[in-house]
Amino acid sequence: MIKSSDSYNDKNYEIVRGELKQSDNWLVYSYKSKLGDCEVQYSPRRVIVSRKGEVPAVIDIDLDKNTDFFYATKEIRKKFTVVGENIEKDEKTGKLEFSYKIYDNGIEINKITISIKNY
Fold first, then answer.
1. What are φ and ψ of residue 56, in 5° steps?
2. Cα 4 vs. chain centroid, distance in angstroms?
3. Which residue in 9, 7, 31, 26 sits closest to 116, CA to CA?
4. 54 has a pLDDT exceeding 80
5. CATH topology of domain 2-117
6. Which of 34, 64, 83, 95 is 20 to 30 A distant from 43 in Cα terms?
């Protein structure tokens, strides 16, 4: 199950089936969603979200440094800055939650929170 919300009060909820595996120092969750083939790589200070589909994306949420995010569609091609805010994993429930802010030329344009729970 994946839930997301942003600073514009857009909320999404999707039940997906995925595969959870350990790879070196990363916990990797791969799944198919309405947005395409996705993968979330988790470590305690960093999460990388990769999506292949109509609008491919790689978002690197790092609590120790700002990262670049390239957004490309037919209408727009733009580079944004991602600032990681929070990464939490609840070992008892298996829930992973992380949040980050997206900046365009130093101006905050969105804050996104994503929660993933594997059943």
1. -70, 150
2. 9
3. 31
4. yes
5. Lipocalin (2.40.128)
6. 34
CA distance 57 to 46: 16
Q: What token pair was written down for 86?
A: 């929070």
Question: Average pLDDT of the chain?
Answer: 93
What's the predicted TM-score (pTM) here? 0.90
| Measured distance CA(57)–CA(68) in Å, rounded | 11
Which residue matches tokens 């944004």?
A: 80
Under 8 Å CB-to-CB from 45, ≥6 apart: which residues? 62, 63, 64, 87
Enumerate the domain spans of the chain: 2-117
**What residues contact residue 80 under an 8 Å CB cut-off, 6+ apart?**
68, 69, 70, 71, 102, 103, 104, 109
User: Which residues pair with residue 36 across a beta bridge?
Assistant: 33
